Amino acid sequence: MNSFISRNSTSSCKPTRGGNPFQNLEKTTVLQEARTFNDTPVNPRKCAHILTKILYLLNQGEQLGTMEATETFFAMTKLFQSRDVVLRRLVYLGIKELSSLAEDVIIVTSSLTKDMTGKEDLYRAAAIRALCTITDGGMLAAIERYMKQAIVDRSPAVSSAALVSSLHLTNVSGDVARRWANEAQEALNSNNVMVQYHALGVLYQARKADKHAVIKLVAKLMRTSPKSPYAACMLIRMACKLLDEVDKGDELLGFIESCLRHKSEMVVYEAAHALINLGRSCTKEITPAISVLQLFCGSQKPALRFAAVRTLNKVAMSHPTAVTACNLDLENLITDSNRSIATLAITTLLKTGAESSVDRLMKQIATFVSEISDEFKVVVVQAIRALCQKYPRKHAVLMNFLSAMLRDEGGLEYKAAIADTIIAVMEVNAEAKEAGLAHLCEFIEDCEHNSLAVRILHLLGQEGPTSKQPSRYIRFIYNRVILESASVRAAAVTALARFAAACPPLLPNVLVLLSRCQLDSDDEVRDRAAYYCAILQQQNEPTILPLVQPPLLSVPSLERALRNYMQTPMDEPFDISQIPPAQTVEEPTQVEVHTTVKQQPRLTREESFMEKLSQIPHLTMIIRDSSLLKSSPVFELTESETEYNVKCIKHTFTEFLILQFDCVNTLSDQLLEDVRVAVEPPEGYTIVCEVPCPRLPYNELGTTYTVLRYPEDVHASVATIPTTLRFMARDCDPATGVPDADQGYNDEYMLEDLEITLADQVRGIGNRGVDFNAAWEAAGAKGFNKLEETFALGSSVTSLEGAIQSLTGFLGLDAVERTNRVQSGAAAHNLLLSGIFRGGKEVLARARLALSDNQVTMQLTVLCQDPDVAELIISSVG
Amino acid sequence: MAILDNDGNRILAKYYDKNVFPTSKEQKTFEKNLFNKTHRANAEIIMLDGLTCVYRSNVDLFFYVMGSSHENELILMSVLNCLYDSVSQILRKNVEKKAVLDSLDIVMLAMDEICDGGIILDADASSVVQRVALRTDDIPLGEQTVAQVLQSAKEQLKWSLLK
After folding, report:
1. Quick check: B155 and A270 CB within 8 A?
2. Are residue A537 and residue A660 in the same domain, yes or no?
3. Rounded distance, CA A504 to CA A540, Å?
4. Same structural domain for residues A732 and A827?
5. B25 contacts in chain A (CB < 8 Å)
6. What is the complex's ipTM, to 2 decimals?
7. Mutate which of A87, A99, A264, A373 to test chain B, going by most B C-beta atoms within 10 A?
């Protein structure tokens, strides 16, 4: 205690027992004390101590008001009288801290400028940095001369400080770095490693807008290879960025590879990391990087091991075979004392390992899974998911492991990841379904996350009825109705109704349960129960299934269609089949670890096009009373590197076809006007209108539209259209884009032919959960036309998967009931397809595929209410 | 960059990216979180909230350096080593909480010298220490005026009486 007092002898703050003299500081008291700054002569020790207290308070997150900050700031300026080194340095620190809070901070400019040009090196560097924090755009000019001098100063500290500050100043004024580039260039030759690094930073900042200048800079430095490891790391990053942008770069690649032999580990790792993350690297390029990382795996330093394993883990996703060489080293790391390293090692092994080692690895993970953080558990779960896809036969082991994890403690994100994995496994692997459902049932028994429980109930409702013993799930679901919150109860009611609808034997029992739910305290639950009771009691046909599980329609389209319907006399019933289904957001397969990307609820592609089209005045007339059936994928009408670049999207409406041409002019010395794509309408088609693009400057996207009316005869609708780009070209100044005064000239440019196919006119409806057999029979009963033919598919199709892919792509129909997945090794397959032809004509198709001697034979049966459409579909396959 | 004590409380911390943890409340929750994850196992590196954190502890102090998950772990490590070594030199190898608090001003200056607005300013401990101009506590008598010496003596006397 005594020694403590002697150090802080001048302090007026009472030391607390804990030994932290700063513990019970009060903002107001400390600010009061700051008045001592005004005393003359300045007492450096006392003031330094008070200033430390102020800084400590700020550092602890204490907020100062503008008034308080300004007052303190001005008091602080008095301390410039003292010559005490530490005090002066603390003042700089204080200036930096308060510069954003206090007003009129520029008052200290002259004092700082004096220090910065003074003799004392210790002041100069820090003064520069303080000065730059208070500098604004207006004052920049005043200090510019000093800064330039400082950058090339002999003292590395000063030079570094000036360079770093100029980097910060680019936020104030963008071109600072460029103006001082010459000085930075000189500083780059400095012997001090840090100065070199900072100078490189400034130079890059100065030139980053100009790709060629960066290339030159990198090329020059590559030859001399900077001494500073930091500069080398930065150079590698710059090289990588360039490699991403330019096509060729063998030299750059060579440089990065040579860095693998650098003497600093930091640089070696950076280079290995860079090689691996390079988008286009192939196995040959990453092999040396991997062998370096392999060495790191055996390092003494945990950070190095961690870095190596983390990077290997990443490669394992894309090049599992390349990492196999490291398997032995990775296995040693499983027992690492750092759990993060162990987890990463295991997940990497899971990705690269062989089927036989799965059991052993799982056991090892089980021993420490409870000790790692949720984030890493999610990584493990993702690895298991990948594993399930790779080795479907191992699903029993993995499933058990997952269910054990599901029972452990964990946050929502973690649990959701597990549930997702189980669901994914069930989807790909029919054998795993029963076990998976059982695990999930068990899980919802005590699941504290409502959203997850609702999802699982929904899944049970979908998958449960088709399982071997549907009745066993009823108990689990009804338990939810008794025990859970309203949203879960509502979901449980829906799931129950699905069981009743899909399994008639269960109907009476479920009805009893549902009638009990009608007494629920929550409105939604009661409503649902009443609704289901009513329809389930009324009739008992397979057709009620769609009523129980309403199709997922896209809400904005439904709204628009209903609004249109309200304006009609409402004579005919509303046709719900016109509404496109809601887009199910495809889950990205490789989720970057630890980044939670929030998916915006977005419109489907068709809807966003519809919005865009309806804003064009000429087109509103056409599209007002019908909805967009389908927008085709983008179709390139030119090679990618020609003068003009034209892409086409075909939008199909009931009677019209809108061709959207997206044009890009790649000639910098031309301005195109009145751009249109002339089409020669094939027989039966008529051109309704054209919407030209008035101006198409260099490198901007312009859009022109052509509207065609479909022919009466559907057979004629499949056609090839020759297209030509017509425009008025005017020469212009490449730099400014201002056209020359003289008149332009008309010109045209041949484009490739545009094909209108069957797929353009058909929208698949695969994900509506239709019971295909029921629909098939119902269609037969409704008097749909049935056509059947047998084909031998061409030599290009050698597998069932290939046949399915080309057939769905060609017909535009979607596979239902997951019949697009073929059991591996099967020789025959039944593909069920469904979709809508324009005009709301429902199309059902069944394709029986058989494989023999790499030749696929197909019997295609098509059902459609319009005989012509059915004929068209059959004939277009032939 | 942060220095925490053995209860996970902040002694010094500096965040350079305003987008990560914009308020001091978020910063403190992160620090608590980080501390809970790291104080038991001395494992040097961990990933938390999308940040790579390298750390090192001594007696009752924890030194942390945080960086984005894309950052080169070894660069972070070099900064951490520099931070630790500088503090250690400043405190004459006596790296503990009380010593840090006693020389808080110098430690602050050292942190300022290591990193400026997120850019590594210097990663060599000895040059950092040299730049912060370590106050040599043994010779202040000569520098102090007679009045100051007298005053400090008086204060010392007063304190010892109060005890």
Report:
1. no
2. no
3. 8
4. no
5. 61
6. 0.75
7. A373
B80 part of a folded domain: yes
Q: Which of A318, A502, A11 minimizes the C-alpha distance to B159?
A: A11
The per-residue pLDDT of chain A, averaged, comes to 75
Q: Tell me the residue range of the domain where B124 lies.
A: 2-138
- What tokens appear for A322 in the block? 């390349």
Quick: pLDDT tens for B49-106: 777 888 887 777 888 888 887 778 888 888 888 888 888 887 777 777 777 777 777 8
What is the span of the domain harbouring residue A525?
449-541
Nearest to A226, CA basis, from A252, A271, A259, A249? A259
Helix (H, G, I), strand (E, B) or coil at A758: coil
Q: Which two tokens stand for residue A128?
A: 């520069």
CATH number at residue B75: 3.30.450.60
Residues A616, A698 within the same domain: yes
**Domain membership flag for residue A270:** no
pLDDT in tens, A417-426: 888 888 777 7
Domain count, chain B: 1
Distance CA A728, CA A746 (A): 4
Which of A2, A19, A48 is closest, CB to CB, to B105?
A48
Alpha-carbon distance of A199 to A167, in angstroms, equals 10
Query: How many independent structural domains does chain A possess?
Result: 3
Chain B residues near residue A197 by CB distance under 8 angstroms: 120
Provide the chain B residues 117-136 that lie in CB contact (below 8 A) with chain A.
117, 119-124, 127, 131-133, 135
Which pLDDT tens digit goes with each residue over B21-49? 777 778 888 888 778 777 766 667 777 77
> A594 to chain B: which residues are within 8 Å by CB?
47, 50, 69
A521 interfaces chain B, CB cutoff of 8 Å = no
**Is the CB of residue A52 less than 8 Å away from at least one CB of chain B?**
yes
Burial annotation A487-526 (CB, 10 A radius, 16+ → b, else e): bbbbbbbbbbbbbbbbbeebbeebbebbeebeebeeeebb
Q: Would you mind telling me the total number of residues written for chain B in this entry?
A: 163
**Residue B156 is assigned to a structural domain of this protein:** no
> Same structural domain for residues A737 and A649?
yes
Q: Note whether A150 contacts B: Cβ–Cβ < 8 A.
A: no
| B140 contacts in chain A (CB < 8 Å) | 45
CB-based contact (8 Å) between A43 and chain B?
Answer: yes
Return all residues near A723 (Cβ < 8 A) that are at least 6 apart: A637, A648, A677, A678, A679, A680, A751, A752, A753, A754
